[in-house]
Amino acid sequence: MKTRDRIVHAALELFNENGERAMTTNHIAAHLEISPGNLYYHFRNKQEIVREIFALYSKELIERFTPLQGQYESLTLLKHYLDSMFNLMWKYRFFYSNLPEILQRDEELHVEYIASQEKLHVNLINIMQNFVDMELLDVEKEDLETLVTSLHMVYSGWLAYQSAMSLKTEITEQVIYKGMLQMISLVKPCTTPQGYEQLQLLEDGILALHV
């Protein structure tokens, strides 16, 4: 792995474990056993590393939430999107936990974040429309926007909410799975009988294994 990539992956690991604010470029360099000068050859400061991590996150986010083409079983699709939510929240949990502060101090990153979230929002509406077409959801087209916005709010703000509710909150896999359950609870009232049954299967699986 190239040194630049090693720096990014090490920073992501340290930010997730210790919080982004607590980590400096010196911490990252020491973790990799390289000199600070070597790190600065690739990144001028920590904020450039944060931007690089965000670029990876944004690319993966859009890839995972692009509507899938072809014939898939409905339960397979539901599980795919729930797994994608969990994997992204866990992999980039430092970002979700402290999102407002990270964006407020970097205007360029904030602009990039808004652009990626607008693209995500369009994809999510298309994904939900697919579930309507598959007769898993019973939602009027004009109401999809409200449902997607509610889901988007929970998804993007869940870890920050958990952190705000207690100074001692530790972000664990169980905390993220509870966020998945919260999103399922938002969708359940909009399901058809078939959709309700399949969401219940996913919910039971999460409860049995993770919460």
How would you describe the overall organization of this protein?
- The chain is an all-alpha fold.
- The chain has 2 domains: 1-44, Arc Repressor Mutant, subunit A (Orthogonal Bundle); 53-209, Orthogonal Bundle (Tetracycline Repressor, domain 2), CATH 1.10.357.10.
- It is 77% helix and 0% strand.
- The protein is built from 11 helices and no strands.
- It has helices at 3-18, 25-32, 36-42, 46-64, 74-91, 93-97, 99-104, 107-133, 141-165, 173-187, 193-209.
- The model has no long low-confidence stretch (mean pLDDT 92).
- This is TetR family transcriptional regulator.
- It holds the Pfam family TetR_N.
- InterPro entries: Homeodomain-like_sf, HTH-type_Tx_Regulator, HTH_TetR, TetR.
- Residues 1-61 form the HTH tetR-type domain.
- It comes from Vibrio diazotrophicus.
Low-pLDDT regions:
none
How many strands, which pairing sense, and closed or not: the largest β-sheet? none
Write down the Rg.
19 Å
Number of helices: 11
Q: How many distinct beta strands?
A: 0
Query: How many structural units, i.e. domains?
Result: 2
Shape: elongated
Arithmetic mean pLDDT: 92
Could you estimate the helical fraction of the residues in percent? over 70%
Percent of sequence in beta strands: under 5%
- CATH T-level fold name of the largest domain: Tetracycline Repressor, domain 2
- CATH homologous superfamily annotation of the largest domain: Tetracycline Repressor, domain 2
CATH class of the largest domain: Mainly Alpha
Order of helices and strands: HHHHHHHHHHH
**CATH architectural group of the largest domain:** Orthogonal Bundle
Organism: Vibrio diazotrophicus
InterPro entries: Homeodomain-like_sf (IPR009057), HTH-type_Tx_Regulator (IPR050624), HTH_TetR (IPR001647), TetR (IPR025722)
GO molecular function: DNA binding
Keywords: DNA-binding
